[in-house]
Amino acid sequence: MKTILKVSNVSKYFGGVKALESVSFDLNEGEILGIIGPNGSGKTTLVNVITGFLKPNSGDVIFKNEKITGLPPYKIANLGIARTFQNVRPFYHLPAFKNLIIPLYSSRSRRFAESKFGDRDHVALDLMEDVGFERDSPIPYKAAAALPHGYIKRLELARCLALKPEILITDEIFSGLSAAEVASMVPILEKLQMGGITLVMVEHRLRELFRIADRVIVLEYGSKIAEGKPDEIVENERVKEAYLGTEVV
Amino acid sequence: MHQIKEVEEKGLRKERIDRPIKARTDDIYFLSSFREILYLLGPRIVLILFLLLFPVFSPNPYVLRIFELTCASAIIALSWDFLVSSVGLVSLGHALFFGLGGYIAASFSAYLGFPIFLTIPIAMVGGAAISTLLILPCLRLRGIYFALVTLIYPLLLVRVIEATAILGGTLGITDVEGFPNYLVEVYLVVIALLISFFGLRRLLNEDIGMVLRAIRDNDQMVRASGINVTSYRALGVFISSMMTSFAGAYVAHLYMFVGLPHFGLDYSIFPIAATIVGGIGTISGPLIGSFLLLPASEALRALGPLRIVLYALLLVVFIVGKPEGIMSYLQRKYHQIERWIEV
Description:
The structure holds two protein chains of two kinds.
Chain A: E1 3-14, E2 17-28, E3 32-36, H1 43-50, E4 58-63, E5 66-67, H2 73-79, E6 81-83, H3 101-104, H4 107-112, H5 120-130, H6 149-161, E7 167-171, H7 179-194, E8 198-202, H8 206-212, E9 215-220, E10 223-228, H9 230-235, H10 237-242
Parallel strand pairs in A: 3-8, 3-9, 6-7, 7-8
Antiparallel strand pairs in A: 1-2, 1-4, 4-5, 9-10
Chain B: E1 3-9, E2 12-18, H1 20-25, H2 34-57, H3 61-87, H4 94-110, H5 116-135, H6 143-164, H7 182-205, H8 207-217, H9 219-224, H10 229-255, H11 266-278, H12 284-299, H13 307-321, H14 325-335, E3 336-342
Helix pairs in contact in B: 2-7, 3-7, 3-10, 3-11, 3-12, 4-5, 4-6, 4-10, 4-11, 5-10, 7-8, 11-12, 11-13, 11-14, 12-14
């Protein structure tokens, strides 16, 4: 298996708080990697460091043998690493499908566009269909502010797909969704994996994550405490300890 | 579609609904009759005809001069509204753009003898470029910090000109070429206003306008979408300052003079007042606001420097009483009907 992303000894401090303490892991091409951990264990910080929203104090992020540590977020996105946000705030003033015009306007998407003057609106509607919006319903044309939470999460996913990413990092994409909504989201993610996208999923909903993840990393207080296949993680004593009293599958 | 007002009295309730013609013209069906086409194009035609015909029927040169100044101010108000409601940058220093435009046009005209049709484009591009460069370092700032920085620049430039006595010092530059005749004078600014108005509307509905509006909503997500936010903010500042620099250059040629008042607080406060009165984020709002405020303040000329007090008071009244501005009221009247229904 080929390593597509390598995180080596990344540390990030906020003043005296150690948000990440020399975290290292490899991401293999085409897999689904889950990142879990209790609240405040540094999961989102790790995502922010990989995608350039935070600069690490030490350590490197290497994407396809190239160092991307410290590059601005838009350059990393244009390299093909897309991310969703934990607290999704769509572009409220635009109609839902126009939200996708923004990533389609990036240099990466324009490079992939077939013609220079391709109609971005149609591409946007195609993408919305891929994540489960009905094309003939009025929903894609509504203002993004009027969408229900489940649709906003899908819209956020579509926004990332518009970048044609090689790595997609989802930050708690299942949070706030009902069991039925999660059940309809899972096949979309599996389809993406089959389409060749490497997925990193930061999650709190362990039951759902363990069903689709190939490998899981566990963080606690900024350090990696375990790594392995989901069933190994479930048996891991150290992980049980970290989650003691909370969710253990 | 139904907007129901909360007021209820004697079992009657006021209901607002869209006019049937609005629903029809929302879609492609507006092409089905002249009435529908007129409903859509009417307001635009009225605006264009008013701007084009007013100079023909204006009673005297004084009124005409006020009209020209109003058009120039409307361009400034438009550019302020564009910057704040599309790019999300609140500027308190449009006087910087205005003054730079004026000084550049005046210098090229008075010192180098350039003709008007060259000085104005030079002032537009030059003023916009200098403004953007000055503001570039603080484009990462947002909200109040950006506003404060823009507030400082015009004050700073005034002191620099005063202290070093360059560009005429406190006396200003007086040998600026005037317009050859009143037709050029009037229609230059009218056409510039029409271009800015319809151009901005077009721009905001293009894909690039979507990007600018998205930056206002959530700049982190725009970054994550692979777009360099700082460069698009700079583009927004460039467009806005280019429009205001045009107004500055135009007014310099109109008065055949440019001086320190070109950097005055008036030019920073007026666009804000006009936009708030007219309606923020509506594009037509700043235009209407300017056409109400500037003639009103001319009528109260006797007040002299107290004009700024008038702007400030109007600003307070509108922010407290009707923050959405006049334009939203007009739009509602145009698109909706009100009626009393029994509950």
